[in-house]
Amino acid sequence: MKILLNVCCAPDATHTINALREAGYEPVTFFYNPNIHPRGEYYKRVADMEKLAGISSVENVPDVPYDIEEWFSLCKLYAGEPERGKRCEICFRMRMEKTAQKAKELAVEIFATTLTISPHKDMALINRLGKEAAEKYNVKYLESNFKKQDGFKKSIVLSREYGLYRQDYCGCSYSLIERLKQKRAFAGRQKP
Asked: Which domains does the chain have, with CATH numbers?
């Protein structure tokens, strides 16, 4: 049975594709991550998803538009919030709804997301939003926890094996700024 897999980045899709196949599904990947900033980062992640689709022999939904303007319009009021705050909830909802809508359009009965592989994401929130989007678009959502049984660690190993680019921030400009601050603080502590 086909399952539409919302993909935030190729590294997170590596193990997720394998886990879905082991569960009896045939994933169709749908790279939809409207928050990614800057534009070059977005296209780097798109290229790696296309590379992984070839390596993994999965059908990949092509040419998904870069939706940064819509994302900014929805999230700008929450620019000052930390990771895992209201901004992330809006971003997850946007992704789940777009994936449910795409599943309906492609006549794929069920969808899932790679987002639950990350130890940094609120899995319960993601699964709740996935179920809500599924209900809205009259499709099914596969609740998941792809980080179980070392899923996240497996994704790191597979990413290296496949030569995939592994980013060090979620993707949005706010998470990029936070990551750069962390790097500067760490570098400052390293100086003698």
From this structure: 2-190 (3.40.50.620)
